[in-house]
């Protein structure tokens, strides 16, 4: 069992077997730099690399994770082993202690420069719920849904780190009974609790990436809140898909959990009841599902516990699908799972499903109810996954508060 | 009348009143650097700026246009005046002549780092044609089409410069009569002739950009070929829009024509037969349509002449719509008009429309016909717009040749 000489609680989400990467600043030193979360501290990774004469100083003494992410799987594993050594071998204790910042003193930033952002739609329960709500006269799942991980490109430039205020978007809406669309602040502002995958190693234009090469390309995992304006989305999305209903903001958690920290979290995905085409077929392979337990809290009150292990399509299948046409990957490309919704009501990852489009509002402990988000509401999504020796690997949180529309 | 002492043909697409920006290298100097097209030459703008002690050396002596684009409208106008002076005032002749490269000796590169890429759908003729082909049982235009410029995010990482080979994508297709989807190379590979707009100055998250501020944010214009795999697109696009049918490649012309070069090209857009919401309403304003005459050639034979002036939605309306929800702009964001198709058959900007999904193939001078593109086919899109004094402002070309699918 790996142990650190640092005082880290046994049930800390950021134990020695996690070591997620982020980018932080402090009041004393406003230079953005790479940090590693350990217990209640942030380790200044670049500073320790310099102090110890690490071979990887160039990758760790950087303003974001992109150089490290571009270096590829072998380097990721070596660097992780080196950071583990710093925290477990007393020989490094002096250099480490000189470069630890209490977590509450660290301001956390978007940890990587985002390339392209793709949002998938991989929960059968979510897709089926939304189909029933948006297209009540049709089959809830479109005919293609079980043949491919449906996805679309989102807006990279409005990906923001947890804690960024979310300005209520304005736009066009039109209920079926209205004669013409109206313009105004979104009236059905929602969340989508998702899991995000960060691409480290790129690929060549024209050459698909195989499902089996997922671990060579994906660096790590974080949490996502894909804020959604349901009234704007419902009016705009036919025929070219969601656009302004999503593009105003997507929040991500500040810590990227390396795939290597999730070795104990892999599980079989749900049984496929439609035979997948060979490039997506993962039957009989190493399981690519992930057992991530998510919690969604509104103003401090847990309203849902979506189980990521129920997702029909895996991140490895999504990567294979996204590149099967020869589309290249770049370091910093980011893709999200789609809303995580389990089969039960209290496992749904969006208010549109939790309240069935407002028909059955969520009750809060203060006696108020919510169909959708009000100004001032704060949503925080947290998650953990199984680690070794009964520990839990924490993802931290992605949180955001709604502020009134502008102008 | 502005004249240059350089030998430039009166009918050159790159006259003294154009001065488009690009990025080039030469065999002797493989450093990417900013060039300005003038006649049959490329002017090394950074080198001349250095030689003449320009105040804008920092913006022009750069590897791409992003620093100049970020500087904003006032600087764009000043820099353009300075480059005009270099080419018209004999005092600069020596410095200019030392830094001219024959255009055929310059390799041209993607001239800017792309932020987000949005593709619109702004031609009524195109949207109506595609609606009839993709959804024969419904109204061709969706109910929202005349209320907003419909658009979606595309893949920035696969935007390539003219001349890049286009590898035929593979993917899933399923005709309505097929029992299950099949995987294989695209059988209906198509083009979309479009006009692209490059964002220079960014904007703040949460604050919309007004239609009237278009010229403050948009730096220039280029040509786009939004390659499209119609069979992949038809099977995947419901409900979240086009994804792999588009994301394998989008080609752009290497020269960005500054808005200042298009002063004589503005025209009234078509009459709006549905009253636009105030943020889109341009009735009575300075005209925001652009009179750009496009030609599409397949293997050297012109197959279509799409007229950009017929586009229902303008680039200014698209910018206002794209940000009305508070989505921010970044330097390098890029958006394309959507396929330019006029009312006549020979004005359609995609083969799916020109051949009505293969029912009426295009005949080529060599006796062959095309429903869609074959391996080895080359498509080149060129365009010009009115300049001052009877001149034409040229956009150069966006060209690409199809190569066989890989793996």
| Helix content bin of chain A | 10-25%
Query: What is the CA-CA span between the terminal residues of chain A?
Result: 57 Å
Q: Can you say what the CATH homologous superfamily of the largest domain in chain A is? A: Fumarylacetoacetase-like, C-terminal domain
- Number of contiguous helices of chain A: 10
Rg of Cα set of chain A: 21 Å
Mean pLDDT of chain A: 97
* Biggest β-sheet strands, sense, barrel of chain A: 8 strands, mixed
CATH architecture of the largest domain in chain A: Alpha-Beta Complex
Strand runs of chain A, count: 26
Assess the beta-strand content of chain A as a share of residues: 25-35%
List low-pLDDT spans of chain A.
Answer: none
CATH class of the largest domain in chain A: Alpha Beta
Question: What global shape of chain A is seen?
Answer: globular
Structural class of chain A: alpha+beta
Describe the protein.
Chains A, B: It comes from Yinghuangia soli. Chains A, B: Pathway: Amino-acid degradation; L-phenylalanine degradation; acetoacetate and fumarate from L-phenylalanine: step 6/6. Chains A, B: Keywords: Calcium, Hydrolase, Magnesium, Metal-binding, Phenylalanine catabolism, Tyrosine catabolism. Chains A, B: It is an enzyme of class 3 (hydrolase). Two copies of one chain form a homodimer. The first copy, chain A, has two domains: 88 residues, Fumarylacetoacetase, N-terminal domain (SH3 type barrels, Roll), CATH 2.30.30.230; 287 residues, Fumarylacetoacetase-like, C-terminal domain (Fumarylacetoacetate hydrolase, domain 2), CATH 3.90.850.10. The first copy, chain A, is globular. Helix content of chain A is 18%, strand content 27%. Chain A starts with 20 loop residues before the first strand and ends with a strand. The mean pLDDT of chain A is 97. In chain A, strands 6, 7, 8, 13, 14, 16, 17 and 22 form an eight-stranded mixed sheet that branches. A five-stranded antiparallel sheet of chain A has the order 4-3-2-1-5. In chain A, strands 9-26-25-20-21 form a five-stranded mixed sheet, with no helix packed on it. The interface between A and B is large, with 69 and 69 residues.
């Amino acid at each position: 069992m790996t142990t650190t000489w640092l005082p880290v609680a046994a049930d800390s989400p950021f134990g020695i077997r996690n070591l997620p990467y982020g980018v932080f600043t402090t009041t004393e030193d406003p230079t953005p730099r790479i940090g590693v979360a350990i217990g209640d501290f942030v380790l200044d990774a670049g500073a320790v690399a310099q102090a110890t004469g690490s071979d990887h100083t160039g990758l760790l003494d950087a303003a974001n994770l992109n150089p490290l992410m571009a270096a590829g799987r072998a380097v990721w594993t070596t660097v992780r082993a080196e950071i583990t050594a710093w925290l477990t071998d007393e020989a490094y204790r002096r250099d480490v202690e000189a470069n630890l910042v209490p977590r509450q003193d660290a301001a956390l930033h978007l940890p990587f420069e985002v390339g392209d952002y793709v949002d998938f739609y991989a929960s059968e329960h979510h897709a089926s719920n939304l189909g029933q709500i948006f297209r009540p006269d049709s089959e809830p799942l479109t005919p293609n849904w079980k043949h491919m991980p449906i996805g679309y490109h989102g807006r990279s430039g409005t990906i923001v780190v947890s804690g960024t205020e979310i300005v209520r978007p304005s736009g066009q809406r039109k209920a079926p009974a209205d004669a013409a669309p109206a313009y105004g602040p979104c009236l059905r502002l929602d969340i989508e609790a998702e899991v995000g995958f960060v691409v480290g190693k790129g690929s060549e234009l024209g050459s698909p990436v195989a499902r089996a090469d997922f671990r060579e390309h994906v660096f790590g995992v974080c949490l996502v809140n894909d804020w959604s304006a349901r009234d704007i989305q419902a009016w705009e999305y036919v025929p070219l898909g969601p656009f302004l209903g999503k593009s105003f903001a997507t929040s991500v958690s500040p810590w990227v959990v390396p795939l290597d920290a999730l070795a104990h979290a892999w599980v079989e995905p749900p049984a496929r009841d439609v035979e997948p085409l060979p490039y997506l077929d993962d039957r009989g392979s190493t399981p690519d599902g992930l057992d991530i337990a998510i919690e969604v809290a509104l103003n401090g009150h847990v309203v849902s516990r979506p189980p990521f292990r129920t997702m029909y399509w895996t991140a490895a299948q999504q990567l294979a699908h996204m590149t099967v046409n020869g589309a290249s990957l770049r370091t910093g490309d980011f893709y999200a799972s789609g809303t995580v919704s389990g089969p039960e009501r209290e496992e749904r990852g969006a208010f549109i499903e939790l309240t069935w489009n407002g028909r059955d509002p969520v009750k809060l402990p203060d006696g108020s109810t919510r169909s959708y988000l009000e100004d001032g509401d704060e949503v925080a999504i947290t998650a953990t996954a199984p680690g070794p020796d009964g520990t839990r690997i924490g993802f931290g949180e992605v949180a955001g508060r709604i502020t009134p529309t502008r102008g």
